[in-house]
């Protein structure tokens, strides 16, 4: 359960996040409307999601299939809420993910994309997909390499009940140098931007580059992110 003070906080923090996005976009000569804010509500109660919704937020991200499913069910009366699944995908969970989400942002193999396509057909819906790139080559993160993007995109583009919308990445946590810079992070985000621009040339449906979380929002917007995913900055620390 959430206290009233938490709910007021969420509205304030959401507003702060929107202002922050606006300021950073302006700093890098980008339009703030080109950067969409996703509120990542994983581990937080539905009351917190409702608080953000009532403050105007519509796009939410969840990492755990069952948690997404439960929240989607409880909030099914909020017709214009948009759920993104952003967590690792187990094949046996694809069905409940497809029942709950209109976007799946963490696709990393064709087998999973095929299952999503089959479920989407059964559910008579179209599901938007992002390919997750393991941009830091981290052994602990899922995602394909940049070199694998074209092949997976080509196969997914042939599927009928999904739409390829772009790319997503979760980089490693890099410490800042003495100057406060994180050159490795800049480099990796720029690699993502180049790959995304290339994909856009090939597929007109591609319009989303999901980069940036609470700790690296600035660099992500500088490097062309069109969707930032904020959890902590909106809902506070997770337990
Ligand atoms: C948890 C999570 C976020 C939000 O992270 P914060 O640092 O809390 O903003 C964003 N993207 C993904 C994929 C996540 O799992």
TrEMBL record:
Keywords of the record: Pyridoxal phosphate
Keyword Transcription: no
One Gene Ontology term of the molecular function aspect: pyridoxal phosphate binding
InterPro entries in the record: Ala_racemase_N, PLP-binding_barrel, PyrdxlP_homeostasis
Top-level taxon: Bacteria
Pfam families the record matches: Ala_racemase_N
Gene3D superfamilies named among the record's database cross-references: Alanine racemase
Cofactor (UniProt): pyridoxal 5'-phosphate
Residues with N6-(pyridoxal phosphate)lysine modification: 42
Domain Alanine racemase N-terminal: 18-237
Family: Belongs to the pyridoxal phosphate-binding protein YggS/PROSC family.
Function: Pyridoxal 5'-phosphate (PLP)-binding protein, which is involved in PLP homeostasis.
Protein name: Pyridoxal phosphate homeostasis protein
Organism of derivation: Psychrosphaera saromensis
